[in-house]
Each structure stands twice: as structure tokens, then as C-alpha cells.
Amino acid sequence: MDYTNQYRQEFKKLEKLLHIASGKTGDTTHFPTLLHLASRQYPLLQHREFEHLALDLNGLRNVLEHSDRDKYIAEIKPVALEHLQKLITLLKTPPKVGSALKKKKDGVYCAFRDYTVTGVVKTMQSRTYTHVPVYESETNYKFLGVFSEASIFNWYADFPSASPPPSLAENSFRKYLHNKTDHFEFIASQKSILDVIALFDNYLQNGKRLGAIFITKRGNNNEKPLNIITAWDIPEIKQFLSL
Asked: How far apart are CA 15 and CA 29, in angstroms?
């Protein structure tokens, strides 16, 4: 089966999206420039894998339009059409954070102000958790901070001979729930999964560490978290987007 005509039609759809996003309606703009301008609206195209894919698909289209194309290519393979269609789908309807990521088996582990520091540490150790959001109570999700490995490390660095405070509510311990070098963000479940990648990339480009992203219904920190994303989840996210 020859997929040439179908490929041409699908590529026109891609070009239309890029022209609208870039504000360039004519055919005089070079394709790489078109991609660069459109990437402001479509962050997916800022990622090398998808930028190169779009350029390859354009190169294939150019060969198809060549009068002597039979010298260079016999027919379009199904995989080329599949990749083109997936790229268009990802641009038009990028997957949402709430639906793309697997939810944690036991939900998001949260700590509350009356929890003991020792108890939280033991839970983190047994379940291999790195970041735990801390709230006022199970009926009042007022955000107090994030308990991380850095919290207890910094505590002992400041008080090497002291025992941990009895609870997370202790005033002496509260500042350790806001670490200056281990940042965190909140994001709404309806945000694009690309926004998650962009957040990690932005922190990295600025020489900072984004320890965790907490997903809530509206992206508010005073809501019960639906999921949590750490750097360990990035491979899963990229696998979800891979072709």
C-alpha cells in the first residue's frame, strides 16, 4: 500500500498548526524558522527529539514533492505516517498530568503537624520516599511545608548533638520544611505533561534542584495532593511521550 497521498495530507495538517502558532501565513518562511516560532506555543517542539522528528518529516515531504522522487524513495512506510500522526496529536492535545502518570499505589503519603519526626523518617525509609508534604491535619489541608531528606540532614548539621523534636509542629523545626536548595512546585492536574518537563528543565538551567512537583486539582498548595512527581519519574514521562 502506498501511503504517499495520505502522508501529504497529514503533513498539510502539521503545517497548518505551525503556521497558526507562528503567525506566519505565507509559504516563504523556512521550515526550521517556522518550527522555532511555533515552539513558543508548542513546548513539545523545544525538545530535541521532537524538533528533529519534525525536521526529518519535513525532509521526507520535500523528497515526495521532488519531480524525480522515484530515484530517491520508492514509497512511504507506515511508521513515517504513524510518527507524523502522533506528532500532530501531541501538538493538538498534549496529555494531561492527571491522566498520563500512574498514581502511587498507596496514594500520596502526607504528614500532619502532630506527626513525629522519627515516625515520618521511618516511613520514608521503608517506602523509599524522598519528599513528604506536611499539612495542618487530615481535615485541614493547610500547607506547612515539605519534609525531605534535606530537612533532617540540615537539622543535624545545625544541632549535631540534639535529638529530633517530638513533632513536625515544633517551631524550632518548621524552617526545615522549607529548604533553600531543594525546591518544590504545585501544578494542576489538567496541566500538560510538557509543563512538568519544562519545570524540571527551567530549574536545571538556572542551576537549581527541583525536588518534587505535587499535583492537585487546581494547582493550589492548600489542597489534598493527587500525585507527586520527582526526578525519578522523568524516564516514565519521557517513555510516555516516546515514539
From this structure: 11
* Number of domains comprising the chain: 2
Question: Is residue 50 domain-shared with residue 108, that is, in the same domain?
Answer: no
Residues 105 and 206 in one domain: yes
Q: Are residues 50 and 129 in the same domain?
A: no
Instruction: For 54-78, write each residue's pLDDT tens digit.
Output: 999 999 888 887 766 666 665 788 8
Burial class (CB in 10 A: 0-12, 13-18, 19+), 213: buried
Q: What are the pLDDT digits (tens) for 102-152?
A: 776 678 999 999 898 889 999 999 998 999 999 999 999 999 999 998 888
d(CA 104, CA 117) in angstroms, rounded, equals 23
d(CA 71, CA 88): 29
Contacts 24+ apart (CB under 8 A), 77-80: 77/3, 78/3, 80/3, 80/7
Helices 78-92 and 4-22 cross at an angle (nearest 10°) of: 30
**In this structure, are 130 and 47 located in the same domain?**
no
Domain that holds residue 68: 4-91
146 in the same domain as 35: no
Q: Where among 91, 118, 133 does a domain terminate?
A: 91
Contacts of 100 (CB under 8 A, 6+ apart): 193, 237, 240
